[in-house]
Specification:
- The structure holds two protein chains of two kinds.
- Chain A is of the alpha/beta class.
- In chain A, strands 6-5-9-7-8 form a five-stranded mixed sheet, sandwiched between helices.
- Helix content of chain A is about 40%, strand content about 10%.
- Chain A is built from 18 helices and nine strands.
- Chain B is α+β, with helices and mostly antiparallel strands.
- Chain B is built from eight helices and four strands, in the order H-H-H-H-H-E-H-H-E-E-E-H.
- In chain B, helix 7 runs parallel beside helix 8.
- The termini of chain B are far apart.
- The chains are: A alpha/beta, B alpha+beta.
- The interface between A and B is large, with 56 and 38 residues.
Chain lengths: ~450, ~200
């Protein structure tokens, strides 16, 4: 698709169910007039002039919008909780921190259609009764920051944000701030800490941010994609939003396909679309697809034989994978699953903020155990250690990122035990991808914990 | 020999392991001569709002090429944010805390880049520069690093040189990038050499 006005890093795949992506490339992201020509801010106008905040929340509730940031929490419930908390000051934060560097959704929205995010933010602030809106953007997305700043300036000048929106008594002061691009900074309480000038580290919940968040006041944190969906719902209707998707998750989701796909990029699909169909949209896999890791760095593997499952929170969760950041990493027969799991876990280990000690040290020890397995020099209890550590890291998790950190390892251990076995016992990479030291002696003795133990993958 | 894990790379861990301690590269960072008015101006420009901390870091890094410790102390004083908080936010935010030695070549290590040939780029660069990732060349003209946050997306595999992101790259392309910068540095040094 010709997308001359966004960064070359973002490739939009044609097809799927484009709603948010439909306008990207068609409208001029730098002018308000162009967005208004395409129906922009009509939803905001209708909501602020004709609906009460509770009626607006009811409309979002009827649409069944779930947070697109990964957890899938009902957006209406979050806004209602913030609305019901009595406070003089409330804040709404748009999370465009791009925690998973491979996911392109929020960046494409901020660069291609920034006004939609701003409109969603003002709507969320109106619903929650907040007078401040903060857009937190990853600092290396310079084009996104620049366009969002222009959008906020224009919207404020046109009284669509800022003091007394559209002549009513609603005021939402919107500002755009850079945030440091760390994996954990995308987590909502870590983002709140970072915005307060502290280290970007998660906080213990409860209290939840909707009752006590940034600067100690009720805060709603939503991803840019959720906010864009909210403004889409108000512009069209709740019924139109629910026309696609599943009963549990309505609407569409921005999915990034990467890895061994013919045409990697960003695509918008309805919830419930089979993974195989998403892969086909991206031109299919290169070579024989072996597995798809769904959900970013904490992704769980879905075997090539099981790609019929729909892209939705619950079915993916049941398969050990997750929606997460919305990225799908395609691997093929040339990729070693042990090495891929090690790579993904290493990312979680390196990006660990260090606040939860089991996460900081446990993930590192798990990577070291995987390194020993890869080098065919495992300690006899390494597989037991891996399973135990992954359970303990998840049990003592402060944020969901560490709870899912060991999923790549657990799911591949489940689906491809032969690759682990051959690496650990014989020093042979079944995929032929790893460089191994051929002089090693094969290991004698059993390796407990290697055989599949389905009950070890707990809920996130 | 005991292992030294990444999270324990402090001088004492090296001493206990019987290894020569890594020398501090700049022991007198407190006294560094920096443009204090610039730092104060940036902080005042954002009216010392804590949300702006990353924006302030970005501006200071753009000016000096890294975040000088003295600048961080100034920011801490002027914003009345504790020094440990400021240093922590800077460290976790992926900013450079040591003076930039030549060009920083960062190979993207995100999933998209790795599965489209990022490792070959790293191998080519290690070969071309004669150093491993995380090291600097002897003449200080290049530092090689890997990071998962180059944010290259669909132009994988990508390489970032200082602030510019290049992609999709091949081993030949990265060799060319290095040669080009070597030539530029050589040309820049030449007139100075002839003048003396």
């Amino acid at each position: 698709m010709a997308t001359a006005n966004i960064s070359p890093q973002i490739h939009l795949i044609e097809g799927g169910e484009p709603r948010l992506l439909a306008d990207i490339g068609r409208i001029d992201p730098e002018t308000l007039a162009s967005y208004r020509e395409h129906g922009g801010y009509t939803g905001l106008q209708r909501a602020i002039e004709r609906l009460s905040p509770l009626e607006m929340i009811a409309e979002i509730d009827a649409a069944g919008l779930r947070g697109r940031g990964g957890a899938g929490y009902a957006t209406a419930a979050k806004w209602r909780a913030a609305r019901e908390t009595a406070a003089d000051r409330k804040i709404v934060v748009a999370n465009l921190m791009g925690a998973d560097p491979t996911a392109l959704g929020d960046r494409a929205l901020a660069e291609g259609n920034p006004h939609q995010v701003v409109e969603g933010l003002v709507l969320a602030a109106f619903a929650a009764g907040a007078s401040e809106g903060i857009i937190a953007v990853r600092r290396d997305w310079t084009l996104a920051i620049q366009r969002l700043r222009t959008a906020v300036e224009e919207a404020t000048a046109a009284h669509l944000a800022g003091y007394l929106v559209l002549g009513t008594d609603v005021s939402v002061n919107v500002s755009v701030w850079e945030g440091s691009g760390a994996y954990v900074a995308g987590e909502e309480t870590a983002l709140i800490s970072a915005l307060a000038g502290d280290r970007g580290m998660p906080l213990i919940r409860p209290p939840y941010p909707s009752t006590r968040g940034l600067f100690g006041v009720p805060t709603v944190v939503q991803s840019g994609e959720t906010l864009a969906h909210a403004s889409w719902i108000l512009e069209h209707s709740a019924e139109a939003f629910g026309s696609v998707g599943t009963t549990a998750s309505k609407g569409t989701k921005l999915v990034t396909v990467l890895g061994r796909a013919v045409e990697p990029g960003l695509v918008e699909v309805a919830f419930g679309t089979p993974l195989l169909e998403i892969l086909t949209l991206a031109g299919g896999g290169i070579g024989t697809t072996k597995a798809i890791f769904a959900g970013g760095p904490g992704a769980g593997a879905v075997e090539a034989g099981g790609l019929e499952i729909g892209y939705d929170y619950e079915p993916l969760e049941a398969a050990g994978a997750l929606v997460g950041s919305g990225s799908l990493l395609v691997t093929n027969a040339d990729d070693c699953m042990v090495d891929t799991a090690r790579f993904l876990m290493d990312f979680s280990a390196r990006e660990a903020c260090g606040k939860a000690v089991p996460c900081r040290i446990g993930t590192r020890r798990m990577v070291e155990a995987l390194d020993r397995i890869l080098a065919a020099t495992p300690r006899p209890n390494d597989f037991v250690l891996l399973r135990e550590l992954s359970r303990k890291v998840a049990d003592t998790a402060l944020c969901h990122l560490e709870a899912i950190a060991s999923r790549p390892m657990l799911t591949t251990l489940e689906l491809f035990p032969d690759e682990y076995r051959s690496h650990a016992e014989r020093g042979v990479c079944l995929a032929g991808a790893c460089q191994l030291d051929r002089t090693l002696q094969p290991l004698a003795g059993p390796l407990p914990g290697l055989d599949p133990q389905p009950d070890t993958i707990g809920p996130a | 020999m005991p292992e030294i894990y990444d999270e324990r790379r402090d001088p004492n861990a090296y001493r206990r392991a019987g290894l020569p301690a890594r020398p501090m590269r700049n022991p007198a960072r407190w006294e560094e001569a920096i443009d204090t008015d610039f730092v104060n101006g940036v902080v005042d420009g954002y009216r010392a709002r804590p949300e702006a901390l990353v924006a302030i870091f970005t501006a200071v890094e753009a000016r000096f090429g890294y975040l000088p410790e003295r600048a961080l102390r100034l920011i801490s004083d002027r914003m009345t944010i504790h020094w440990a908080q400021v240093f922590g936010a800077a460290g976790l935010g992926g900013f450079r805390l040591l003076p930039a030695e030549g060009h920083l070549v960062t190979v993207c290590d995100c999933a998209a880049c790795r599965f489209s040939g990022g490792r070959e780029l790293l191998a080519a660069l290690e070969d071309e520069l004669g150093i491993r990732a995380g090291e600097s060349t002897d003449d200080g003209s290049f530092t090689l690093a890997t990071a998962a946050d180059v944010g290259a997306g669909s132009i994988a595999p990508a390489v970032r040189v200082d602030t510019l992101v290049y992609g999709p790259m091949t081993a030949e392309h990265v060799r060319h990038l290095v040669t080009e910068r070597r030539a530029a540095r050589g040309a820049a040094r030449q007139p100075a050499g002839t003048a003396s």
